[in-house]
């Protein structure tokens, strides 16, 4: 693999603007090479007045106060190619500037431009790296304070036992804090102070006493007095805690309990792991940029037959990028602290937590995907053959089947299509190097790839198609005048199996992904009592495209609860209560989005969230009016439904394209799109815009009463629902692309992990 592609694959995508622009530098080198190939005879034995220019430059540098120069070679002055020096300016950071000493030669302007761009990239990398190192040093200091407080809390909780057994050895308040991650220079407090052993179950007092002994005996702990100035927030984010925090502060006094220590350790451990990942990526950033400078300078030497790389790379090595060792020291100290205090000295366990392994593709996933896909194809063929052989399309029981059985199986068709679209989204997100794992907040190594999503979708299709084939009978028993009970219960059994798999507590069938989905769905239901994350409102947006799926679930309850499923008859639409719930279940996901937007408006104080909530509220109004018209079929309701739907369609379409996708920017580099695009073919974006507009107008089928002669009304409803799911799948890709570029612009590559302790007096440590 060429280094340019390797660099693009390994870089932190949210920091891509801060890396060396290797492709541009390589392009400049190609221009230099092209010029030299065209003028090859002119580049033999030319030295010019190099010595005089070198002398004048050094005299000028002495007057301007520039630092010591780095020579490109140990040869005589006439063999020197470049002079590199750090430039000092008052009130600003130092930067590096290179003087090309052979600019008067033919093609020298191109080489001057190359070194000007190279200096620009070096100074950009140095500024970014210095800023990030300063950030992690501040974070390390805060984590050190948190760790000191945790150890003081452990001592306080076990104090009665300690006073009895180790009273002579303990001098509370007479020592420095126990840990200090931030002391990367080794001059401050040491971290290797406390030894701990593995704590057993909460009921095992012997293990807890042993841990207290190891925490205290022979060591100098952090001062316990620090706990007098500390508040704690370790309660999980629940609806009850949210309601309580509205009345009182979320920061409470310490209770000095063992359960409190466990919660603190869990929360602080997550903060350590996230901080460690940041340090690793910062180290990788330094290494990749150093390697990029080395590669590009060696290419320059090879193309120009000069010897400029040695001096330039020496300067890079002496710069902050090459000489700073603070990140490595922070990594070593963090590893030592985490292993000692969170895994009880077990290095293997500690490093496994800090460095989760990358997820590996399994061959059996591909095998079963192919198997299920083949089975699905065979079942589809079997259904078509059965319908044609038995002439079921013209059977007198067709209407009864479409009114009662088709809505039951259509639920799984909606789910299958949505999974198919999400699998395709996952494939393209990965192909275009979008960090969707970070955006959604997946735990590293647990996210599902497109193969796993397609595997589940194909497995669901096999179950559904097999159930359809077994329940394709349209004739009742001539004696009993009822259908076979067992086959009529197949749809109910199928939905039961799907629900059991979804909520199965055992570690099978991607449990972490299933629970992540269930957790996000619960947070959507309980909106606005949970803090809104991207995965929460993204899932709620997906649910707004599954209105017919919710109505199918409602029909399950009505059909099997109050209908006569053995005779395939129901009176659901004749019930006023059913009509009310028919409207309510459809607006639930939209109402959830309204509440989520209001929660974000309250927390973030952004007016756009208020406008977004108004958008979803207008959709709720339009959906209610369309549903009432569908049930009543009156002209007055038709006019109101058409008016409200037209307004909300314009509102939603504008929001989709301009706000969610970030397109239609008139002054953007890519006219009418945006400055940055992941897909090089711009036509794709314009096609997506047109498709989004057209698919937003499918509601007109209901208002205008458009029907296809060979399609049953139920089938037309299902077709419209599938078109909306397809539109949502297209929306998903460009929505995440826009979110990815928002992260890139703000260099946001890490999530913020809340810390358990809050300090009333910042001077206590």
UniProtKB/TrEMBL annotation:
Protein name in UniProt: Phosphate transporter
PANTHER family in alphabetical order: PHOSPHATE TRANSPORTER PHO1 HOMOLOG 9, XENOTROPIC AND POLYTROPIC RETROVIRUS RECEPTOR 1-RELATED
Subcellular location field: Cell membrane
Annotated family: Belongs to the SYG1 (TC 2.A.94) family.
Superkingdom of this protein's organism: Eukaryota
Organism the protein comes from: Sesamum angustifolium
Membrane topology field: Multi-pass membrane protein
Membrane-spanning residues: 367-389, 409-429, 450-469, 489-510, 576-594, 614-631, 683-704
One example of a Gene Ontology biological process annotation: cellular response to phosphate starvation
InterPro entries, A to Z: EXS_C, PHO1_SPX, SPX_dom
């Amino acid at each position: 693999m060429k280094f340019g592609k390797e660099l693009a694959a390994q870089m932190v995508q949210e920091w891509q603007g801060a890396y060396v622009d290797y492709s541009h530098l390589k392009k400049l080198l190609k221009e230099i090479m092209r010029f030299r190939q065209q003028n090859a005879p002119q580049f033999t034995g030319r030295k010019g007045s190099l010595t005089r220019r070198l002398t004048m430059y050094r005299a000028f540098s002495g007057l301007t106060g520039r630092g010591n120069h780095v020579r490109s070679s140990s040869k005589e002055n006439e063999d020197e190619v470049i002079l590199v020096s750090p430039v000092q300016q008052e009130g600003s950071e130092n930067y590096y500037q290179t003087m090309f000493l052979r600019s008067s030669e033919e093609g020298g302007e191109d080489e001057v431009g190359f070194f000007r761009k190279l200096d620009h990239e070096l100074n950009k990398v140095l500024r970014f790296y210095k800023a990030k190192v300063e950030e992690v040093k501040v974070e390390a200091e805060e984590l050190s304070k948190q760790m000191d407080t945790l150890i003081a809390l452990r001592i306080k909780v076990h104090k009665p036992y300690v006073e009895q057994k180790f009273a002579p050895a303990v001098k509370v308040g007479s020592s420095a804090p126990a840990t200090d991650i931030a002391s990367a220079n080794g001059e401050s407090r040491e971290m290797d102070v406390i030894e701990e052993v593995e704590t057993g179950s909460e009921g095992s007092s012997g293990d807890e006493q042993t841990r207290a002994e190891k925490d205290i005996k022979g060591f100098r702990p952090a001062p316990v007095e620090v706990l007098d100035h500390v508040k704690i927030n370790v309660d999980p984010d629940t609806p009850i805690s949210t309601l309580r925090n509205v009345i009182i502060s979320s920061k409470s006094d310490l209770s000095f309990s063992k359960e409190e220590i466990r919660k603190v350790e869990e929360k602080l451990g997550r903060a350590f792991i996230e901080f460690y990942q940041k340090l690793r990526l910062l180290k990788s950033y330094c290494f990749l940029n150093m390697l990029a400078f080395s590669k590009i300078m060696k290419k320059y030497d090879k193309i120009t037959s000069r010897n400029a790389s040695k001096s330039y790379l020496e300067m890079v090595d002496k710069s902050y990028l090459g000489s700073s060792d603070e990140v490595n020291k922070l990594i070593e100290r963090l590893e030592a602290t985490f292993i000692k205090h969170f895994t009880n000295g077990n290095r293997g366990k500690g490093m496994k937590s800090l460095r989760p392994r990358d997820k590996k593709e399994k061959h059996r996933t591909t095998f079963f995907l192919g198997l299920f896909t083949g089975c699905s194809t065979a079942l589809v063929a079997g259904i078509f053959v059965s319908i044609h052989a038995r002439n079921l399309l013209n059977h007198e029981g067709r209407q009864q089947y479409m009114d009662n059985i088709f809505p039951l199986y259509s639920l799984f068709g909606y789910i299958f299509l949505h999974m198919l679209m999400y699998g395709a989204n996952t494939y393209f997100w990965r192909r275009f190097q979008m960090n969707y794992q970070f955006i959604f907040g997946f735990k590293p190594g647990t996210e599902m790839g497109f193969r796993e999503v397609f595997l589940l979708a194909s497995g669901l299709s096999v179950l559904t198609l097999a159930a359809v084939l077994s329940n394709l009978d349209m004739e009742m028993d001539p004696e009993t005048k009822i259908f076979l009970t067992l086959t009529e219960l197949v749809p109910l059994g199928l939905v039961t199996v799907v629900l059991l798999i979804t909520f199965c507590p055992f570690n099978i069938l991607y449990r972490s992904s299933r629970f992540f989905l269930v957790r996000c769905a619960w947070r959507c239901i309980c909106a606005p009592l949970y803090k809104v994350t991207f995965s929460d409102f993204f899932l709620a947006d997906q649910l707004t495209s599954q209105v017919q799926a919710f109505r199918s679930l409602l029909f399950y309850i009505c059909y099997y609860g109050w209908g006569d499923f053995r005779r395939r008859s129901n009176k659901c639409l004749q019930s006023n209560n059913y009509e009310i719930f028919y409207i309510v279940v459809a607006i639930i996901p939209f109402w959830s989005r309204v509440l989520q937007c209001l929660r974000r408006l309250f927390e973030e104080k952004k007016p756009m969230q208020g406008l977004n909530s108004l958008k979803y509220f207008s959709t709720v109004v339009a959906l209610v009016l369309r549903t009432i018209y569908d049930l009543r079929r009156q002209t007055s309701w038709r006019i109101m439904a058409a008016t409200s739907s037209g307004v909300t369609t314009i509102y939603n379409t504008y929001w989709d394209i301009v706000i969610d996708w970030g397109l239609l920017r008139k002054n953007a580099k890519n006219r009418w799109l945006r400055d940055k695009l992941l897909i090089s073919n711009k036509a794709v974006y314009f096609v997506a815009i047109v498709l989004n507009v057209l698919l937003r107008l499918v509601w007109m089928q209901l208002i205008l009463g458009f029907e296809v002669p060979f399609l049953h009304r139920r089938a037309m409803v299902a077709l419209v629902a599938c078109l909306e799911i397809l539109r949502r799948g297209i929306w998903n890709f460009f929505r995440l692309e826009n979110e990815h570029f928002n992260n890139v612009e703000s260099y946001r590559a890490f999530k913020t992990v809340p810390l358990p302790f809050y300090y009333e007096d910042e001077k206590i440590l």
